[in-house]
Each structure stands twice: as structure tokens, then as C-alpha cells.
Design brief:
heterodimer; A: alpha+beta; Beta-Lactamase; five-stranded antiparallel beta sheet; 5 strands; B: mainly alpha; two-stranded antiparallel ribbon; two-stranded antiparallel sheet; 37 helices; elongated; transport (chain A)
């Protein structure tokens, strides 16, 4: 299955991109970029909603015939976008939620590192390993 | 094969040997060939070797499993020490020296020289002492593989000196070398004279100024004997070089360290050998140095160093940011963005190691892990990535028990964070289930939603904990108010099976609804629900409908219907307009069920004015009075309407509270806001109600009804009142239906949400569980 994770910062530039398999990455870039519109739309629709896990998780942004795109946004407007293959029907919504939660936690750990400047690309080995393990679970 | 107990040193040693022999990297089986070579290197007579093999079972199995290998090694040691080979000797012989295998390992023996020549793989100068990068090429020498890890051939190459020297030169490059030295010293400590630490120190000091790698060329000149000193001094190197890196000015520290080291060389050797093969272990001097550095930043040893200060500090080491970032990730154990003393020492140590050329591990080495009282992570075996097969080494490395004794008041903060973490998670887990989550009742839903929002984020348990008790209290309160009614109400309001709590909640819900419905001026919507029940905010008419729907069913059931009624008394008691309510509520209740019967009573409107007058007279809670008066009035009015007769009849039969209820109801209906038609019916119902002891309920009900009626347009007294009454009742019923339908859908939705929440919580819990293993 194909999975891709992309983190995008407030200004929508990518902070972290990871995909399996590594080919066709450009297509994922494009997909994620286009899905940002949906993300923004959902964010604006939330308005003054209470911030909790439910609203951080944006859910299925849009399905295409090939893949599904899921979104998640943190309180600091860092967007996590995940693209999964449509053939991977085993992925339940809650699994996606838990994956996003793990991503969020790892991202928080990265942020705690004083050597990491927010806005830099994420070069953390721990983060990478976490993402790899998650992708391995899915694939 | 009997169980084999190995000392720690033995364990490590054997593991390395096994790894060395494990050419196929199966980690389970050592091919016979390699093992045999190894045994040959032990310089044991072949028959002994055969005997050993037999004893350990290898001949039986045909290969050397790990256990067989260990047993064999132990037997080799036994044999080498001259003891007879027996199975029992495996465990009985204490303090057995490690089996010695001729080869690079035994620097003490000069046999390695003979092996050197055969070791072509040692591209470096050394011959077999230091295993060449490819690793275990020391088969020829039968050396132990612990050197295999040394992949830093670069440093090896510098050692162009005698093979004996070679091992000494490797230390700076890899922790394994360190370990090797350890082992060597452990194996042949006694044999190795500690010669001339002095000359060693000087070249060492010369090496200091340079980078760590510069120490290598200097080493090349060293003689074999002092290799231990080298190793010892190497131990000093990190701190000294770190000193250099970080504080060029602190030359004094270097000398101090060096002198200290030299003075305690012997002690260190012994200590180091005992601590064995842990290159990541922090020595006492290092530890002291780190602590001093910590103090310069943060005087309180139990305090934190904030991330920014640490960043500055470590940036001085001139390591690339990426590596510093990685070091931080490794050392900030609790991920709080600050370094405690232990974390700081670990980070410092990693920086030192890195500056000396060691690669950073992927995971924090065991000896660097901060001591957490709560966590028992000492059993965790971190893997140093750089080390090829050294996975076993670290695992066997001396546990934190041997860790620098000065792992001082370790992280009180860490200790706290962990239990807090666990507690919080447990608390949240506990909090969540407390309330009656799985019930569809709205209140439950609200509770759950509150909890969900609270627990998921940083909302510690407190708000959540607060809420359930509140809710439960409320529920209890409500339950206490009306017991019988509750069950009925619950049964009515939701068809789901309730637990006792839901019943309470349901009652609370109904109570709430009734509260809001009872009075347009309803004093206070039901307190507990965290979220104002939508129905509460709705107009009282809904509540009235509810009460309507409730009452008919209940009345028909002959049960005390007003589960909703009980709450009424409270709000209604305070309000003036509530005067009508007691009457109205019941009247309404009666009305719905007897709507068809209301029609004939419509004409009682004429009485309404009188009722109103009566009501206006200030009869409030005095239902009886009203009733009586009304009844009187009604009786007077009787002739006017047939309903009046009815009413009178009712009044007669009901000269109690109900009548009063009817009056206002009637009046309301006929004239102003009160709904007349229901009133007569209410009266009738009231008679039934009277059977119930809940007078208050009546008052409330009437209040509600009054409110509802109030919302309805006044109906001019006319014959059409019947129709209007019917229409009104129909309308009310419809409203009630919609309300209930909406409620149902909401509850369903909430149920779904709760279920999902539960699943996500379970997932979270699972996540937290493995996390505790880390």
C-alpha cells in the first residue's frame, strides 16, 4: 500500500515528507498540496469550536479512486496530511486517528528540542523511526 | 545440560565470543569451524576440546547454540585453569578466570605476535589485536570478536607500531576498544604491570590539545604495557578534550584530571575492568566534571537546565546542530525541554564521546539513562547502532548498578513526571468510565462529551473528576426527589435499558425538562447538565408537551405520571405566574389524555375569567384554596357550560389541589395565555393525580401547563374553542413528538460519539501501555 505523510506548517510549506514507496512521490506532493484547500476549509468551518482531539482530526478530506486523504491539524496550525491507498481498506478511522495522535506526539517531542527551530525541516531520527514504524504497520 | 550461571563479565565476554563466532549472523548458532578454531586458540589439547564439546552437547547437536557455546567457553576456562572438566564444574567453580584464547585478545601473552603474521586481514598495522574493520577476521588468531566492532580502521591504521600497541591505539575510536581493554585488563589484569604511567601521561597531554583523533599518532608510540594506562587515560580524554572543546581556558582542569587519573590509575583500571565493557559509562571524574558544569548553569542540582541554556552550552562544543539535536533527543528522557542533572550528564557524555569520534547511538545507552525510581528500565538493552554486533555488549554492560555512583538525587522531577504521567493517564481512564457513559441519556452524553474534551488534552482529571461527581450528585438529588416517577419517566423518555444511574439521569433529564417547561420564568434550568439541555432552552411549551406525553401515558398506565412534575415545585414555588402552574400542569396533563373530553368542557371558558380572577387573587401554592374557590366558581358557572358541570363535577370530586389546577388552566385557556380546553381535562386527570401523593408535582405541572398555555394565543371564547382546544392539543402533541424525535436523534448521535470515544480511549490506553516499557 502506499502511504505518505506530509507535515505542513502554517504557511503551508512542507516540514516533513515521507512516503512509501518512494517513487511517485511527486504525485503525493501534488495530492497533499491540493488537499490543503480542503484542510483550510475545514479549519475555517470550525470557527470557535472547542479545541479537542475531535476537532484536531479532520477526517477523510476527500477520497479518490486511488487513494484517500486524511487530515489533522494541530493547535498551532501545523497540518498533517496522510495519503493512503484506497485498497487498504483495513485502515479504520480510529486507526487513522491513533496514527495522527502518534504523529502529533512525536512532533511535539521534536519541538521540545531546543536545537530545532520551528519552521525547519524535521531531521529528527526519533521522528523518522516513529514514522517508519507506523508506515510499516500499515503497509 | 545443567543451567549455567555466568557472572556479568563472563556473560559479556561470552557474548562477544559468540558474536565473533557467529559468522553467519544467525545469533543462534556458531558454526563448528569457527568455534573449533577458537578452542584451538585456547591452547587446549585436542582431546580436551573434544571433551568440552561433548560436555556442552555440541557434538550431540552438531552445532554450537548459544547455550552450548557458553558452556563450552566456561569449560575452556575450567580447563585452562587446570580443573578437571566436569559438568558440575560449570557452576561450582567460582571466580573462574575468563577463558583465554590465544590471539589478539591476550595481549598479555605475546603469542599474538605469532598470530599477527597470519592475520592478513589486519590491513592496519596491528595484527590481530584490533580486529580490522571487516570485523571478525580474527578467526585466524582465534581472537575474540569483541574487537570486531572496531570499525574505525582509520585509527587502526595509525597504529603502525607493534601489534601490541595496536589495541591501545584503538580506544579513542570506539567504545568497544574501551571494552576490549576492559576485558583484557579483567583477564590479565594482574599480569599486566602498570608501567610508567608517567610517560604515558605526557604524550597524552600533548594529545589533548589536538582533537581526539590526534591522540592516535601519539599512541602509536606507546608500549604495550601501558595500554591500560592508555585506556585509563583515555577515560580522561573525554573529559579533558571536552574541556578543551568547551572551555579552552580551563587547562587546569585538564591537569587536574590527568593527575587525578594518574594517581588513581590502578584504581581506575580495576574499577573499569569491573565495570567492564560499557563505553558509555560515565566515570567518576567525568561525572564530577559534568556536575560542575551543571552547577555553572544551574546551581540547584535538583533543578532543570532550560532548553535554551542547554542549547547555548552545547553549541560551544562546536558539534553540528544536527548532532546536537540528536543528542538532545537521546538525553532528554522525559521530553520536557529541560535537562535534569542526569539528563545533562548523559548529554554531556554523549557530546564528549562524539567529539572523540564515537558515533552517536540510536538509543540512549543504558548507563546513561537517568535513574527513574518508578521506571524499571534497567533491563532495557539499548543498542548502539555503531557497534556492529555489539548489541549484546550494551545489554550486558554493567547495569545502572554500576553506573556512576553519583547518579545523584536522580531526577526527582523525572520520578515525578513518570508517576504523574501514569497517574494522569490512569486518572483520565478512570474518570471516563466513571460516569454512565454508555447510556444514551442525554445527560450522560453531556457528561461524556465533557470528559472527552477534558481528558484528551491537557485537561487534567480535575474538571472531569469534578463533573461526574456533580452529575452523579445531581442525579442522586433528582432521584431522591421522585423515585417512582423516575422510573416511569425513564421508561418513557428512553426505551433503552438503563442502569441505575441512567435512571437517575433520565430523571434528571426529565426533571430538567420539566423545570424549564414548568415556568417560562423558570428559575434555574437543571443545574447538573454541563450542557444546557437543548430542550431546556426550548420554550416551555415543549416541556408541557413532554409532560403531556408523559402524563397521558402514565395516567393511562395508572402510574404516578408526573416524573417530571416533582421538579416543578421548586421553580414554580418561587414564581408568581407559577400560580397557574400547579393547576395548569395538571390540567394540561389531564388535557392531553382526555382531549376528546375537553371539548365538551370548552365552554367552561366562561369560568376562566373567574378562575383568572381567582388566580390573580394571588392564590399560589394554595391549591386547595384555589380549587375550592374555583370549584365554587365553577359551580356557579355551571349552568353556563356543560363543561362547567364537568368542572363542577370535577371540582366536587376534586376539591383539593387539582381543582385549583384546573382553574388556572381553564382560565388560561379561555382568556389569556392559559389553555382552557385542557383544564377541564386536567381536572379530571387531576382527580387521578390526586391519588398521587405528589402535590408538588401538580403544582409544577400546572405551572408548566400554564406556561405552555401562556404561549398559546388566547382563544376567544366561542364555540370554536373546542376546535381550537383540539387543535392546540394536537399542536402540542406534535411539538412533543418533534421534541422527542429530536431528542432521540441527539441521543443516538451522542451514543455514537461515546462509542467512538471509547474506542479511541482504548487505543490511547494501549499506546500508553507500551510506552511504559520504554
Amino acid at each position: 500500500t502506499i502511504v505518505a505523510y506530509i507535515l505542513r506548517a502554517l504557511q503551508n510549506y512542507p516540514l516533513y515528507i515521507r512516503s512509501i514507496p518512494t517513487e511517485n512521490e511527486l504525485k503525493f506532493h501534488y495530492t497533499v498540496h491540493t488537499s490543503l484547500d480542503v484542510v483550510d476549509e475545514k479549519i475555517s468551518a470550525m470557527g470557535k469550536a472547542l479545541v479537542d482531539q475531535r476537532e484536531l482530526y479532520l477526517g477523510l478530506l476527500y477520497p479518490t479512486e486511488d487513494y484517500k486523504v486524511y487530515g489533522y491539524v494541530t493547535n498551532s496550525k501545523v497540518k498533517f496530511v496522510m495519503v493512503v491507498d484506497s485498497s487498504n481498506t483495513a485502515l479504520r478511522d480510529n486507526e487513522i486517528r491513533s496514527m495522527f495522535r502518534k504523529l502529533h506526539n512525536s512532533y511535539t517531542d521534536v519541538m521540545c528540542n531546543p536545537f530545532y527551530n520551528p519552521g525547519d525541516c524535521i531531521n529528527s531520527r526519533a521522528f523518522d523511526s516513529m514514522v517508519t514504524s507506523m508506515m510499516m504497520q500499515v503497509c | 545440560m545443567e543451567g549455567l550461571t555466568l557472572s556479568e563479565a563472563e556473560q559479556r565476554y561470552y557474548c562477544d565470543l559468540f558474536a565473533y563466532c557467529d559468522t553467519e549472523s544467525t545469533k543462534k548458532v556458531a558454526p563448528n569451524g569457527r568455534v573449533l578454531e577458537l578452542f584451538r586458540a585456547a591452547q587446549l589439547p585436542s582431546e580436551v576440546v573434544l571433551q568440552i564439546m561433548e560436555l556442552c552437547g555440541a557434538t550431540r547437536l552438531g552445532y554450537f547454540g548459544r547455550s552450548q557455546f557458553y558452556i563450552a567457553l566456561k569449560l575452556v576456562a575450567v580447563a585452562q585453569s587446570g580443573l578437571p572438566l566436569r559438568v558440575e564444574s560449570l557452576n561450582t567453580v567460582k571466580d573462574l578466570p575468563l577463558p583465554r584464547f590465544v590471539g589478539p585478545k591476550n595481549e598479555q601473552e605475546l603469542r599474538h605476535t605469532a598470530l599477527y603474521s597470519s592475520d592478513a586481514d589486519n590491513s592496519t598495522s596491528y595484527s590481530g589485536v584490533i580486529p580490522p574493520p571487516p570485523g571478525r577476521v580474527q578467526v585466524k588468531k582465534g581472537s575474540v570478536s569483541h574487537d570486531a566492532v572496531q570499525q574505525r580502521t582509520s585509527t587502526d591504521q595509525q597504529e603502525s607500531t607493534s601489534p601490541v600497541v595496536s589495541p591501545q591505539q584503538s580506544p579513542p575510536t570506539s567504545p568497544h576498544i574501551w571494552r576490549k581493554h576492559h576485558r583484557h585488563s579483567s583477564g590479565g589484569n594482574n599480569e599486566r604491570p602498570i608501567a610508567g604511567p608517567g610517560p604515558l601521561w605526557t604524550p597524552f597531554s600533548e594529545a589533548q590539545p589536538g582533537a581526539s583523533t590526534t591522540g592516535d599518532p601519539i599512541w602509536s608510540g606507546h608500549s604495550p604495557p601501558p595500554h591500560q594506562e592508555n585506556w585509563v587515560s583515555f577515560a580522561d580524554t573525554p573529559p579533558t578534550s571536552a574541556l578543551l572543546a568547551m572551555h579552552p581556558a580551563s587547562v587546569q582542569d585538564q591537569t587536574t584530571v590527568r593527575t587525578v587519573a594518574s594517581a588513581t590509575t590502578a584504581n581506575e583500571i580495576r574499577r573499569q575492568s569491573s565495570s567492564y565493557d560499557d563505553p558509555w559509562k560515565i566515570t567518576d571524574e567525568q561525572r564530577q566534571y559534568y556536575v560542575n558544569q551543571f552547577k555553572t548553569i544551574q546551581p540547584d542540582l535538583n533543578g532543570f537546565i532550560p532548553g535554551s541554556a542547554a542549547k547555548e552550552f552545547f553549541t560551544k562544543s562546536k558539534l553540528p546542530i544536527l548532532e546536537l539535536s540528536h543528542i538532545w533527543e537521546l538525553s532528554d528522557f522525559d521530553k520536557d525541554g529541560a535537562l535534569t542533572l542526569d539528563e545533562f550528564c548523559a548529554a554531556f557524555h554523549l557530546v564528549v564521546a562524539r567529539k572523540n569520534g564515537y558515533d552517536l547511538p540510536e538509543k540512549l545507552p543504558e548507563s546513561l539513562m537517568p535513574k527513574l525510581i518508578d521506571l524499571e528500565d534497567t533491563t532495557v538493552v539499548p543498542v548502539i547502532s555503531e557497534v556492529g554486533d555489539q548489541s549484546g555488549e550494551v545489554g550486558y554492560s554493567s547495569s545502572p548498578a554500576e553506573a556512576p555512583p553519583s547518579k545523584s538525587p536522580s531526577m526527582p522531577s523525572l520520578n515525578q513526571t513518570w508517576p504523574e504521567l501514569n497517574q494522569s493517564s490512569e486518572d483520565t481512564a478512570i474518570v471516563h468510565p466513571v460516569p454512565i457513559r454508555m447510556t444514551p441519556s442525554k445527560i450522560h452524553m453531556q457528561e461524556m462529551e465533557l470528559k472527552r474534551s477534558g481528558s484528551d488534552h491537557a485537561n487534567p482529571t480535575s474538571p472531569l473528576l469534578v463533573k461526574p461527581p456533580d452529575l452523579s450528585e445531581d442525579n442522586k438529588m433528582s432521584t431522591s426527589k421522585f423515585v417512582a416517577g423516575n422510573t416511569v419517566a425513564d421508561g418513557y423518555s428512553s426505551s433503552d435499558s438503563y442502569t441505575s444511574d441512567p435512571e437517575q439521569i433520565g430523571s434528571t433529564v426529565t426533571r430538567q425538562r420539566s423545570h424549564s417547561g414548568t415556568s417560562p420564568d423558570n428559575t434555574a434550568p437543571p443545574p447538573p447538565p454541563p450542557r444546557p439541555h437543548p430542550s431546556h432552552s426550548r420554550s416551555s411549551s415543549l416541556d408541557m408537551n413532554r409532560s403531556f406525553t408523559v402524563t397521558p401515558g402514565q395516567q393511562q398506565a395508572g402510574v404516578a405520571y408526573p416524573p417530571a412534575v416533582p421538579p416543578r415545585p421548586q421553580p414554580t414555588q418561587g414564581a408568581g405566574p407559577h400560580v397557574h402552574r400547579p393547576v395548569d400542569a395538571e390540567g394540561l396533563i389531564a388535557h392531553t389524555s382526555t382531549s376528546p373530553q375537553q371539548i365538551p368542557e370548552q365552554p367552561n371558558f366562561a369560568d376562566f375569567s373567574q378562575f383568572e380572577a381567582l388566580v390573580a387573587s394571588g392564590v399560589n401554592e394554595e391549591e386547595e384554596e384555589e380549587i375550592e374557590t374555583h370549584s365554587e366558581v365553577l359551580q356557579v358557572e355551571k349552568p353556563s357550560d356543560s363543561s362547567g358541570s364537568l368542572r363542577v363535577a370535577k371540582a366536587e370530586s376534586r376539591i383539593e389541589d387539582k381543582a385549583a389546577v384546573n382553574v388556572p388552566v381553564n382560565s388560561g385557556k379561555g382568556t389569556t395565555p392559559l389553555a382552557p380546553p385542557p383544564k377541564p381535562i386536567r381536572r379530571r386527570l387531576k382527580s387521578e393525580d390526586e391519588l398521587r401523593p405528589e402535590v408538588e408535582e401538580h403544582t409544577q405541572k400546572t405551572g408548566v401547563i400554564a406556561a405552555v398555555l401562556a404561549s398559546q394565543p388566547s382563544i376567544p371564547r366561542s364555540v370554536g374553542k373546542d376546535k381550537k382546544a383540539i387543535q392546540a392539543s394536537i399542536r402540542r402533541n406534535k411539538e412533543t413528538n418533534t421534541v422527542l424525535a429530536r431528542l432521540n436523534s441527539e441521543l443516538q448521535q451522542q451514543l455514537k460519539d461515546v462509542l467512538e470515544e471509547r474506542i479511541s480511549l482504548e487505543v490511547q490506553l494501549e499506546q500508553l501501555r507500551p510506552f511504559s516499557h520504554l
